Amino acid sequence: MPKWNSVYVVQLSPDATIRVAAASYKEWYSLEEGHFFSTPISAFLLSKKCPDPTVNKALRAVKYHDKLMIVAHGSVNKVADKTADELAQYLHEDCGLSEVGLITFKACYVGRGYFLHEFKNACILNNIKVGWLKGYRGATATVENAGKPTERVRHETTKGFKTGAKRYAILEGTHPFSIGADSRYFTDVDDDA
Question: What is the pTM of this model?
Answer without folding.
Answer: 0.82
